[in-house]
Amino acid sequence: MKKPFWEVISTLDKRWIFLSVFIVITLPILFPINLPLKASEPVKKFYENIESLPEGSLVMISDDYDPGSKAELYPMTESVMYHIFKKKLRVVIVSLYASSPPMTERALNVMRTLFPNIKEGVDYVNLGYKDGREATIVEMGRALQKAFPTDFRGNPVGNIPIMKGVENYNSFKALISISVGYPGTKEYVQYAQGRFNINLLTGAAAVSVPEYSAYYNAGQIKGMLTGITGAGEYEDLIGRRALAAKATDALSFGHVFIIFLILIGNVAWFTQRHKGASHE
Amino acid sequence: MKRTVPIAILFISGLFMIVQYLVPHYRVNDAAGVIQQWAIIITAAATVLGVANLIRVSLDQALTKKQDWMYKWVILVALVVTAVSGIFWGVEPGTFCNDMIYFNFYTPMASTMYASLAFFIASAAFRAFRVRSWQAWLLALTAVIVMLGRVPFGRLLWGDFPSLVDWIMNVPNTVAQRAILIGAAMGAVSTGLKMIFGIERSWLGGSE
Amino acid sequence: MNRNVSLLLLLLFSISFAVARDLGLKASSIPNDAGKAIQLNWDSIPNPPETHIHLFVVERAKSADGPWTVVANPEPNAVSITDDGSAGGANALLPEKDYYYRLRVEYALAIRHGDSLFVDTSNRVAISSEVAGPVHSVPSWINTKHLVVIFLIVGFFTAILYLTKQAHAGAKFFVRKIAGLAAIDEAIGRATEMGKPVLFVPGTQGIDNIQTIAGMIILTEVSRRTAEYDVPIIVPLNQSFVVPVAEEAVKSGAINAGRPEAYVPDNIRFLSEEQFAFTAGVSGIMLREKPAANLFLGAFFAESLILSEVGFSTGAIQIAGTSNVHQLPFFVVACDYTLIGEEFFAASSYISGDPGLLGTLKGTDWMKIAAMILIVVGSLLETFGVTSFAKLFEM
Question: What is the DSSP letter of C324?
Answer without folding.
Answer: -
